[in-house]
Structure formats: C-alpha cells, structure tokens
Amino acid sequence: MPAELEQTLSMLSAHRSVLGYILLSRGEQVSIIRHSGVVFEGDQGKKYAAVIRRIVESVQTGLEEDSIRFMRIRTKRHELMISPDQRYLLAVLHDPAI
To answer: Where's the Roadblock/LAMTOR2 domain (predicted)?
Structure first.
C-alpha cells in the first residue's frame, strides 16, 4: 500500500468524529483491503462494501463524461464520505454531531 494512503488512513483514524473507514479494491469483485471501526467488521462490513460499490457505479453510470472525485451522503445520524480512485474506494463513516 502506498505510503501516502497509509498516512491518510492514520490521519482519518485520529479524528474523534470518525466511526470507521473501509478501503475497497476496484475490481470485478468487491474485496475489503482494510477497515477500522466495529461498524465495518464481519458481515456488516461486507454489506457496506457492496452498497458503497453500487452507489459509486450508479452515479458513475449517470455521469458518462465525468468522473466522481468525492461523494457525501448524510443520514439523520451519520455521514458517509466516499472517495473513489482508479484502484481503490475509500469510505469514511463519521458522526457529524461530534
């Protein structure tokens, strides 16, 4: 994993509002490369991975000529920030109330 990515993941983990992050590979099959936080463990993490991938693919399909750089999805309790790259999908879940 590139040093720049390692540094970014360390900085994200240090924020107190961050509940966790999940780093996915961008390939035919969703694979979790790394995660932090209880919310992304086990089957729950696999569900989040599949949903994140579907969201990015759906939006990307609608924007045929442009590529997504950053997405922010807010619910009543949490905010999911997604940063797609050519090789990775990084999603961070945080509590905006903190």
So the answer is: 5-94
Strand order in the sheet with 32-36: 32-36, 18-25, 88-94, 79-84, 71-74
Q: Burial of 40 by CB count in 10 Å (0-12 exposed, 13-18 middle, 19+ buried)?
A: buried
Contacts by residues 69-72 (CB-CB < 8 Å, ≥ 24 positions apart): none
3 state SS of 13? helix
Is the CB of residue 82 less than 8 Å from the CB of residue 95? no
Domains of the chain by range and CATH? Answer: 3-94 (3.30.450.30)
Identify whether the C-beta of residue 45 lies closer than 8 Å to the C-beta of residue 32: yes
Tens digits of residue pLDDT in 2-48:
788 889 889 988 999 999 999 999 877 778 999 998 889 999 999 99
